[in-house]
Design a protein that fits this description.
The protein has eleven helices and twelve strands. The protein is α+β, with helices and mostly antiparallel strands and 335 residues long.
Length: 335
């Protein structure tokens, strides 16, 4: 068990719970509630410098933090309605920077149809941001559990966008990286239309805020299953960056700075119908692989298969992210 999970369980065992709450701890991306006969979902997410989001574009930074906060609501099958935040800005940020940051947040809320209802504000030598979202829940919520052996595993977009963002933060002073990637911008997706379709066919969904591998691991743990994936749809910028940095592309899959896509499972009996409706709606999804028996965690490439059942590295266990990246690369070289 990882330390973060141990601490969450330690704290939660002392907290009073409500009979109106429908989910258990870790069971869903959002907290699911019944309030006066109506379904609600609630989420709170924190961001800081440790999340390795670049700050050169304040609009993109604001967009990504708000999109990340709302993503959990979508992964639970809800629709965001009210949004609040606690914003602590760095004391060196200009008025223009803060205004563009706010415009990025507002851009997400407008696209999602959510209203801003207030929050808290502070100034500090280091920045922090916490987004808090309340959403409507119509019908049954989607959980992290419920995957069944032989289900298909799907993703709403390419793999690695968040890890590319982190790499550009970590390797930004590399002259070749700087020259090559100077104009690159990362905007996390807002998968509202996709989430509406997914909810009609699946009850098992999670966002990839901590990376695709971790998302698969959580679904497997909660469902008592495993997975086998192949032909992964890596983001093109990630493949190029991995080549420039001489790092294995599989780090885009294992890395924990996620792309905030939605990962979900579909029963064999509905896959064809889902694909037809997705095509009619011009929505694109990527099939990654299949749910397998418990204990199986494999990544199949054209030239080799990685057995990931013994992989236990976690970025949060390292004070220096570069040490973490070296250990991930070493694992991939030896497995």
């Amino acid at each position: 068990m990882n330390r973060e999970r141990e601490l969450i369980e330690l704290i939660n065992k002392h907290m009073p719970r409500s009979s109106s709450q429908l989910n258990t701890i870790f069971e869903s991306d959002s907290e699911i509630l019944m309030f006066q006969g109506k379904g609600l979902v609630y989420n709170i997410d924190e961001f800081s410098e440790t999340d390795l989001l670049r700050e050169d574009d304040p609009y993109a930074l604001g967009w990504n933090m708000a999109a990340g906060s709302i993503s959990d609501i979508l992964a639970s099958g809800g629709r965001p309605k009210f949004y609040a935040h606690s914003m602590v800005v760095r004391d060196s940020w200009t008025m223009d920077f803060v205004e563009k940051l706010a415009q990025g947040i507002a851009g997400v809320l407008k696209e999602a149809g959510a209203a801003f209802i207030g929050g808290d504000f502070g100034i500090s030598p280091t920045w922090r941001y916490t987004g808090s979202v309340i959403g409507d829940m119509n019908g049954q919520a989607m959980l992290r559990s419920g995957a069944k052996v032989r289900d298909g595993i799907y993703l709403t977009g390419p793999i690695g966008g968040g890890n590319v963002e982190a790499a550009l933060k970590l390797y930004g002073q590399n002259l070749l990286v700087k020259q090559l990637t100077g104009p690159w911008k990362t905007f996390f997706p807002l998968r509202i239309k996709e989430a509406e379709l997914i909810k009609r066919y699946s009850h098992c969904c999670i966002d990839t805020s901590d990376g695709v591998f971790n998302a698969l691991g959580i679904i497997s743990e909660m469902s008592g299953t495993g997975f086998a994936v192949s032909s992964l749809p890596y983001v093109k910028s990630g493949l190029l960056l991995a080549k420039v940095l001489n790092l294995p592309k599989e780090m885009l899959f294992l890395g924990e700075c996620g792309e905030y896509e939605l990962l979900f499972t579909l029963g064999e009996e509905v896959e064809d119908e889902f694909a037809r409706e997705a095509g009619d709606k011009k929505l694109r999804f990527h099939k990654l692989g299949q749910v397998k028996e418990q204990g199986i965690k494999s990544l199949c490439q054209k030239d080799r298969t990685f057995d990931l059942s013994t992989y236990t590295l976690r970025a949060r266990d390292y004070a220096d992210p570069m040490d973490y990246l070296r250990n991930v690369a070493d694992f991939l070289a030896k497995v």
